[in-house]
Design a protein that fits this description.
heterodimer, A: Cytochrome Bc1 Complex, Chain D, domain 2, B: 431 residues, two-stranded antiparallel sheet, 57% helix, globular
Chain lengths: 255, 431
């Protein structure tokens, strides 16, 4: 038994190391390898936190992340103090002062993520008429999910010669119709990651896609763990019931 | 239980068998003495597919249970889409009850459709069980109405547009159609009033399903259980007591079913969902292809055949009518497809046809798909109105097994003890 567990540990450790090694090199590959894919995948916390930084610095100025609260950031591995600090950096509507004027206050953990726009018209007016979509469910709403987000962010390029471009549109290989209103939001080295990871465009795209996949489905890990527990319990109960069934049906002349 | 299959009193001596503690434990102290477990006899030759009735009942129970908790947290208000996100993200275990309910609807329909197909294959709708079949169809219609109204509640793009597309089929009712649709929707198009209406209908029809299932089960008890050979289980050798034999076997089936359900709910919960339904409903943006839930697709394909909504309504009502008339359209005296060499392949062709019908219904109404829609719809009616009666007339069924024969699940040779002398069934004799 001990030998078995030692072997199992060795296999798992080797698998983990090779996965880590693969992660370092596979960012530019297509299709992407996602930490959360497969039935038992979990979100890579480091990637989630880098992805959150990318969202904050490259996306949040135009794209809302509704339905999410600052406190939810504990799900990407931040402590409650860190999540509260992120919230405190945002100014949210804080009711009215004694003169009846609207005031802003620093956010707290239970506040929803700051919406960059007061209304959709303001968003369109500031974005060449195109509405910057809410990103809270983006990997569910688009065919391909996180892969689509990655392909879109790495899909910018020069329009092929002869392509008739509309005004204020950018060529993108992954976008349906290839003409997207959003300008390329990512440049290599535009931000510095605290963990020393190099901020290449594929790296930032991969991390922000991981973060958005988490934002679309924050209960994914709890769901999978619960699923394993439920199925193990049911499997054990099924085994007992099968034995009982066999016991009851034996003694009956059959075949 | 007047119509219960006749059981001969024990004429064979009890064989010497060792005490079966498990059987004794459960028979000596049956849980819930008011339900006549022991008196009910079930044919030995009920196959695995006969479990789908109880599986449907389990699905329904889970839907009712999760539905109650969803109803506690769902806010019928200005932003139903945000309500669902609140459930998924903020309510404790909200994601669990919501995903169970969402995937559970598809699972319930899979089980119900297998149950229906089982009835067709084994001809269990024939006399004296036509009533059971028709009550089952009534249950299915109520299920579809419940699912249709429930699908609007998340207020996604596909919820909105498929609800609108299907609602206007009722506009085909002569003279009053427009008024009826306005009355149901609370306006010409979908709005806050529609949501309140559909929320109420959803709960109302869910309880109607429970009622219909109750009557369906009563009819099964009154007309006697069917079996895969279609030969009435009249000999004592052909039946077993419901308890403990079938309670434990059904329990096993339910557990295996729950494991499969868990795989869906916990690991692939979004399998049956359209990506477009994660977008909030937008009355100004029509999706490029409107697709209702998969379990409505064959009927949706039939309604799409006609441009005129009156004809569409007539077609879909006719599609249901032929199902209700199935006990008379199938003219063969032999029930089970096991003994019907021509009906057997025809049945499988029909199953493929229904899947093709749904497949066509999931595509946009371009000329090619519309042509396929119409072709498959035509074949659907040809199967019921021409093929089935014809097969009954020309087919020569293979010989049926006689009662108490090994082919009904009994022993290959030698005497088989009758029910009342089986070990562990002391005190189960019917009076």
């Amino acid at each position: 038994m001990r030998r078995f567990s030692r072997t199992l540990f060795a296999v798992l450790a080797l698998g983990g190391v090779s996965l880590l090694a693969a992660n370092q090199t596979a960012r530019a590959a297509d299709p992407q390898r996602w930490s959360f894919e497969g039935p038992l995948g979990t979100f890579d916390r480091a990637s989630l936190q880098r992805g959150f930084q990318v969202y904050q610095q490259a996306c949040a100025a135009c794209h809302a992340l509704s339905h999410l609260r600052y406190g939810d950031l504990e799900g990407i591995g931040l402590s409650d103090h860190q999540a509260a600090a992120v919230a405190a950096n945002a100014m949210v509507p804080g009711g009215y002062d004694s003169n009846g004027l609207a005031v802003l206050r620093p956010g707290i953990a239970s506040d929803f993520f700051h919406d960059p726009w007061p209304n959709p018209q303001a968003a369109r007016a500031a974005s060449n008429g195109a509405y910057p979509v809410d990103l809270a469910l983006i990997t569910r709403q688009r065919q391909g999910g996180a892969d689509y987000v990655y392909r879109l962010l790495t899909g910018y390029g020069d329009a092929p010669p002869g392509a008739a471009m509309f005004n204020n549109r950018n060529w993108n290989d992954a976008f349906p119709g290839n003409q997207i209103a959003m300008a390329n939001p990512l440049r290599a080295g535009q931000m510095t990651f605290a963990d020393g990871t190099k901020a290449t465009v594929p790296e930032m795209s991969h991390d922000v896609a991981t973060f958005l996949a988490w934002a679309s489905d924050p209960s994914l890990e709890e769901r999978r763990i619960t699923g394993v527990q439920v199925i193990l319990f049911l499997a054990f109960l099924t085994l007992l019931t099968y034995l009982l069934k066999r016991r009851i049906w034996t003694g009956l002349p059959r075949d | 239980m007047a119509q219960e299959p006749q059981t001969a009193q024990g004429s064979v001596a009890a064989p010497a068998t060792r005490a079966n503690w498990a059987r004794n434990l459960f028979v000596e102290t049956p849980p819930g003495a008011s339900f006549p477990y022991g008196e009910t006899r079930l044919p030995r030759n009920q196959g695995v597919l006969w479990h789908f009735g109880i599986l449907a009942a389990v699905s329904l129970s889970l839907m009712m249970l999760t539905g109650v908790f969803l109803a506690m947290n769902y806010v019928v208000g200005v932003d139903p889409f945000a309500t669902i996100q609140y459930l998924m993200r903020d309510v404790s275990y909200g994601w669990l009850i919501r995903l169970m309910h969402m995937a559970g609807a598809s699972i319930f329909f899979i089980v119900a459709y297998v149950n229906l197909a089982r009835g067709i294959y084994y001809g269990t709708y024939k006399a004296p069980r036509a009533r059971i079949w028709q009550l089952g169809l009534v249950t299915l219609i109520l299920m579809q109405i419940t699912a249709y109204t429930g699908y609007l509640l998340p207020w996604g793009q596909m919820s909105y547009w498929s609800t609108l597309a299907l609602a206007w089929t009722l506009g085909g009712i002569p003279f009053v159609g427009h008024g009826v649709v306005r009355w149901i929707l609370g306006g010409d198009t979908l709005g806050a009033a529609t949501l309140t209406h559909f929320y109420t209908f959803h709960i109302l029809f869910a309880f109607a399903v429970v009622g219909a299932v109750y009557v369906h089960i009563r009819a099964i008890r009154e007309n006697g259980p069917s079996n895969r050979d279609g030969v009435e289980a009249v000999a004592a050798e052909d039946v077993l007591p419901f308890h403990p034999y079938y309670t434990v076997r059904a329990g096993l089936a339910v557990l295996v079913f729950l494991i499969l359900c868990s795989v869906v709910v916990f690991f692939i919960p979004y399998t049956f969902e359209h990506a477009a339904n994660f977008l909030p409903a937008d009355p100004l943006v029509v999706p490029s292809n409107i697709v209702p839930q998969w379990y409505l697709l064959p009927f949706y394909a039939i309604t799409r055949c006609a441009q005129n909504s009156f004809i569409a309504l007539v077609l879909v009502l006719a599609a249901w009518a032929v199902l209700f008339a199935l006990p008379w359209l199938d003219t063969s005296a032999t029930r089970s497809a096991r003994y019907r060499p021509i009906f057997r392949p025809a049945f499988w062709a029909f199953i493929v046809l229904v899947i093709l019908l749904g497949w066509a219904g999931a595509h946009p109404t371009t000329t090619g798909w519309l042509l396929l829609d119409r072709l498959f719809t035509l074949l659907y009616f040809v199967f019921f109105l021409i093929v089935l009666p014809l097969i009954g007339a020309i087919e020569t069924p293979t010989p049926l097994p006689v009662p108490a024969s090994p082919r009904l699940g009994g022993p290959a040779s030698g005497a088989w003890p009758s029910v009342t002398t089986l070990p562990g069934t002391r005190g189960l004799e019917t009076s």
